């Protein structure tokens, strides 16, 4: 049988553990966030921000701290969220009636919340002066059923980052900030930059749909067409142009690396820095990685967006919205006007290496940076950003996930033909847009 | 007695040692053992590699994180990632929150699961079978389906945005599996031990306290570890239920180093993740001694 001493020891420990558990839970109950009774004292606003880069995070926190110091009667609590889980977080918060007062998200994703009535219409809450600094085309991206439910403030354009030494060695001149290459020139230059073990381009196409649909606007490719209230997917020559050109670079001229197909933008950086790829088509925010991670002596340049019949790209700006359930919508709008004034918007854009939507903020940013590190190109690319049809389609996320992404991945892996790609995209549209 | 030329003076045959065991099987055994160790070593390397890579990444400066041919040992090791991880996300406070929540969850799970599992294992009724079935069935419900009702209930009870609310959810979430696991341990304790204690004059409570609980220690430890790790790693409930930044747990704090479309700030993320593994490793180290089984061997003869 068991030793009596041991048994007592075990019993004592179990009793202690039980006691600790009960006491612990009691103590934890005291670790509550508490609720804001709102009966007296300053107005409290909760601001869910998705800033995550070091500089951007600091810029956000600094602006909130400055606001709080200058406005003792309206205090903003900064809460950091993350891009990967913000949708579920917001959905739960809206359904549960405990949403943050101010929400940071993106134009393509707030439509769903707008249509469910979770976001306040800001059109009457913001001043005309404030509204005037952003182009109407950009406001359209955050306007749903006539209601403006987000303030677009940061834009992301698609540019080309290139290895300057390789361009020089191949005799490829860097175009000016306001005049990028055409697709034909881009492809011809990629050919010049391709050699044994080296590729002119690395197309990071792990998630190809957004990128293809963005660039398709270069050739006026809309993909989604609405007639008489009915939306459908159509694939004509305009829609086929960008996928066909990328495919040609992969398997025709072999100027694009097939191994980059499964990569995200950041995954291509080791190969780019090692000189394996000469050009990276990607987000304007890739410049940050260049500054932070490029090896010493590495020279890079930002090449303006490539042009087809136009340099148009889809604008999916980051937005700031106010929850419809917020008791302090007016104060929240007041904070937004402060937070996104030209100087502050420029600071936020600089922190995220993105393009500010405000014209004045854009000018201020170019002035402050001297246009270096691609800021001149970034600023200039803003004028070609516009709302794309796919951004206004309710079933787009489902179509993208279930049909477009797998079909494009198969096409770029050379497993299906361009016509088969078109058929799959149209059929997917029929399933989703019924 | 004749001796064939295969037989040596000591009576053993060629390829056979004195104990009569042939050398070839012995050699084969030795080779087999060697291969076993080799396979084990390969498995250990396989298991340890992510942790080793995490350590390596956490000490690398940004340019070394994007090399085409990365090195295991950083050329210019830096503590910058740790400094960033701590200053930007207050990982210390998040870790303390996680420790409190996970320990409380583990303790409460064990406290509730122990008597319940004993009852399920010893008192065989139809209700017990139904209860076990329900317990297993409850594991099929996805998080997303439950989160909004749970949030509303907790809010009504004043437990939303509190660690107590989080602990409550974690305990409820861990209990079904804990019950199922623990009642297996209870079943393995021979009834004869309880009968013997009864014959010696012990009442049921004394039997439980002095006979069952000590023998159940490995099961209790396994249950506590399961509940602790579940709570330690849980992300979604913590994200949704906790609104106040000061109350955030580690997984939520670490997720903030991940950006759009899977891009991440690898250095600070690796540094934070490395620090996040330490408390669970310590908890394992403390508890694993208690996991030793086989204490019942020979307890009942015949």
TrEMBL record, chain A:
Keywords linked to the UniProt accession: Signal
InterPro entries: Bact_solute-bd_prot1, SBP, TAT_signal
Top-rank lineage group of the source organism: Bacteria
Claim: Lyase is one of the keywords in the record: no
Signal peptide interval: 1-29
One Pfam family of this chain: SBP_bac_1
Protein name: Sugar ABC transporter substrate-binding protein
Organism: Plantactinospora endophytica
UniProtKB/TrEMBL annotation, chain B:
TM region(s), chain numbering: 34-55, 99-120, 132-152, 164-182, 211-229, 266-286
Pfam families registered for this protein in UniProt: BPD_transp_1
Residue ranges, annotated region (Disordered): 1-27
Occurrences of domain ABC transmembrane type-1 (ranges): 95-287
Major place of residence: membrane
Topology within the bilayer: Multi-pass membrane protein
Matches recorded under CDD domains: TM_PBP2
Keywords assigned: Cell membrane, Membrane, Transmembrane, Transmembrane helix, Transport
Signal sequence annotation: none
SUPFAM superfamilies hit by this protein: MetI-like (SSF161098)
Gene3D superfamilies, per the entry: MetI-like
PROSITE patterns: ABC_TM1
Compartments reported by the entry: Cell membrane
Positions with biased composition (Basic and acidic residues): 1-13
Entry similarity comment: Belongs to the binding-protein-dependent transport system permease family.
Protein name as annotated: Sugar ABC transporter permease
Species of provenance: Plantactinospora endophytica
Lineage: Bacteria, Bacillati, Actinomycetota, Actinomycetes, Micromonosporales
